[in-house]
Amino acid sequence: MTASTATIGPRTEVPRLDIDPFSDAFLADPFPFHERLREAAPVTYLEPYGVYAVARYAEVHRALTDWQGLQSAAGVGLSNFRKEPPWRPPSVLLEADPPRHDAPRSVLVKLLSPRRLRALEAGWRADAARVVDEMLARGRDFDAVTDLAEVFPLRVFPDAIGLGDSGREHLLPYGDFAFNAFGPRNRLVEEGQAGIGPTMAWIDAQCRRENLAPGGIGQQIWEAADRGEITAEQAPFVVRSLLTAGVDTTVTGIASVLHALADRPEDWRRLRADRSLLPRVFEEAVRLESPVQTFFRTTTQPVELAGVEIPADEKVLMFLGAANRDWRRWHDPHAFDLHRDPSGHVGFGMGLHQCVGQHLARLEAVSVLDALLDRVTALETTGPARRHLNNTLRGFEALPMRLTAA
Amino acid sequence: MGGDLGGGNAVIDRARSAATERRASAGTLRVARKRVVAEGVVELTLVSPDGARLPDWAPGAHIDLVVPADGADAGLVRQYSLCGDRWRPAEYRIMVQREADGRGGSVAIHDRVAEGDALGFGGPRNHFRMAPAAEYLFVAGGIGITPLLPMIDQARRLQQPWRLLYLGRSARRLAGLAELAELGGAEDRVAVHAADELGRADLDAWRPADPAVRVFACGPNRLLDAVEAWGAPPGGLAPRVERFTAQVSAGASPSAFEVVAAHSGATATVDAGESVVDALRRVGVDVITSCAQGVCGTCETGVLAGDPDHRDSLLDDAERARGDCMFPCVSRSRAARLVLDL
Ligand code: FES
């Protein structure tokens, strides 16, 4: 570049890449694409969608935490709400910025704090034991997705929220659709669209006060509205945010840690002997697999990122999964390593919008793992993992496994 | 308004610098600017020593500040409401009124703290959250204006109607009048009542009858008692008030202390410049962290023995008082030895 050009715009060259992060090829195996995105430059421009992208740890961390420069209220998917209407009323949490974001967030932070969740812990551990026992009774071969990772959250989460018994089968498709909807209107969105009407109607109904059981988290959200901490108009959307983000993500998280631990007899033995490693195991799996792969932000003003000036009102795509495997931050980044300190991974995001349900996700995962470790001496795969493609979530369709009962 | 403090403070500066320098790193804020904003009121602009973003906050939040104590090593912990602009993520602002008969914190800030100093801090925490409302009435008594300033800015951003009743002994002692005039714009939103000119205010004349109006008040106890006595209007909510804390915190962390991971018995010395997490890492004990700022809750750890010096944004006063858990990414120890459930 010549120093004499007086043009406004990027001071550093932004490579323009012809990569579609929502194509089947990318979603099925993102790692070679991540490599190209990370190594091309700290900031790149994705031709197919006309968006900026960051895939290195430092820039992703910066974009996540700088809510002043990179806002969420214009949507955290590809669509810019300032230019096109969202597919549903925007989330009062995920798709909001301060000041509107403050009150709903503080209500959920309190309700989902580790100190509050302790009240659920004994029950969840008992449920985890039951789920694993039921599975063991059916034999040694199982699918870690459909027999365990999906079963446990669906057993405990709807009860914790206080949902009714009927219609719970809508939860997984709703989350799947919502996370697809952060991407472009591609095949995945079109396919989900077909049956989504009744699902959305069921979800909306669950958020109403009269449909939430007393004592549950949903009802406590409404009680916060009684106290004036949030408005009665916000309350159903706060409940909805739990139903959107609370199931598919934890299913994927649990599946990810089982996927990581299968065929690792050494690690399994170590864990059986030392359960204090469990929190670390889960964080390392979240780092490595990054159940939530991407989110967008929108610049509120010209924002400088790694020497590049991104103009105002531009979409910036953050590759959390790529940041969590950036060699600049992580030694031997593609390895699942029980000796690693996974602190600071961005699998739950970072900053103001960091996953408010992260402690709930941890409690679910640790409950399941503990119950398994009590009863199982070995875990091996019996076939290839089958991925479930989603525009945002990196989940599984099937994880065939065999266990050895203790 | 105001102006930088004169050279009179330079003498005190040198006497005090050794004690503050020792803390000039982890969990500290540097005083970037100190200026007089009203009679007996100084404003401090605080930044992190490396210029990085500070933990996020919202209107109503306060920080715990470790203020140098006269002659002592440990310092005094005092709470100050944040009154700055959170769209400037690398700085906090507080205003401190000199209380000659106070508990020493304000005098220390007025007399012993100078630009360039490093002060330990904790939080921000928020016990006075601004809740959504159709309309706001803010009532400030003197320096009680501090938490209300960012609330007023927020009401303005949301284009929500608000009014402020600002009471004080004399207009000279009221901080922020110029900013308020700007925030209030052309409309008559701010009523200043200086007792030396107008006598006693007829507070009850301000009591809102409309349940859509929410009252947020901060100031001396006598004022807040009167506002609280308004109660909730039919179909509305009671006024929210924040009282100047009467609670005297014990001294802050000694410059170094010992942390013990109970399960392995591993022991580390935590120096003034490092976190408990860093010190434990040196002796092979990993505590998983995420934000490393005391805001996300990831590193919550049980406390088996000792007296934690809480610096997080998460625990409320009752939870702090229990002393049974802490966030070692930022929190420290008041005693020489801290035993954690690790
Ligand atoms: S790591 Fe976030 S609170 Fe300690």
Automatic annotation (TrEMBL), chain A:
<dbReference type="InterPro" id="IPR001128">
    <property type="entry name" value="Cyt_P450"/>
</dbReference>
<dbReference type="Pfam" id="PF00067">
    <property type="entry name" value="p450"/>
</dbReference>
<keyword id="KW-0408">Iron</keyword>
<keyword id="KW-0349">Heme</keyword>
<keyword id="KW-0479">Metal-binding</keyword>
<dbReference type="InterPro" id="IPR002397">
    <property type="entry name" value="Cyt_P450_B"/>
</dbReference>
<protein>
    <submittedName>
        <fullName>Cytochrome P450</fullName>
    </submittedName>
</protein>
<comment type="similarity">
    <text>Belongs to the cytochrome P450 family.</text>
</comment>
<dbReference type="InterPro" id="IPR017972">
    <property type="entry name" value="Cyt_P450_CS"/>
</dbReference>
<keyword id="KW-0503">Monooxygenase</keyword>
<dbReference type="InterPro" id="IPR036396">
    <property type="entry name" value="Cyt_P450_sf"/>
</dbReference>
<keyword id="KW-0560">Oxidoreductase</keyword>
TrEMBL record, chain B:
<feature type="domain" description="2Fe-2S ferredoxin-type">
    <location>
        <begin position="255"/>
        <end position="342"/>
    </location>
</feature>
<dbReference type="InterPro" id="IPR012675">
    <property type="entry name" value="Beta-grasp_dom_sf"/>
</dbReference>
<dbReference type="InterPro" id="IPR039261">
    <property type="entry name" value="FNR_nucleotide-bd"/>
</dbReference>
<dbReference type="InterPro" id="IPR006058">
    <property type="entry name" value="2Fe2S_fd_BS"/>
</dbReference>
<keyword id="KW-0001">2Fe-2S</keyword>
<feature type="domain" description="FAD-binding FR-type">
    <location>
        <begin position="24"/>
        <end position="131"/>
    </location>
</feature>
<keyword id="KW-0479">Metal-binding</keyword>
<dbReference type="InterPro" id="IPR036010">
    <property type="entry name" value="2Fe-2S_ferredoxin-like_sf"/>
</dbReference>
<dbReference type="Pfam" id="PF00111">
    <property type="entry name" value="Fer2"/>
</dbReference>
<keyword id="KW-0408">Iron</keyword>
<dbReference type="InterPro" id="IPR017938">
    <property type="entry name" value="Riboflavin_synthase-like_b-brl"/>
</dbReference>
<dbReference type="InterPro" id="IPR050415">
    <property type="entry name" value="MRET"/>
</dbReference>
<dbReference type="InterPro" id="IPR017927">
    <property type="entry name" value="FAD-bd_FR_type"/>
</dbReference>
<keyword id="KW-0411">Iron-sulfur</keyword>
<keyword id="KW-0285">Flavoprotein</keyword>
<keyword id="KW-0560">Oxidoreductase</keyword>
<dbReference type="InterPro" id="IPR001041">
    <property type="entry name" value="2Fe-2S_ferredoxin-type"/>
</dbReference>
<protein>
    <submittedName>
        <fullName>PDR/VanB family oxidoreductase</fullName>
    </submittedName>
</protein>
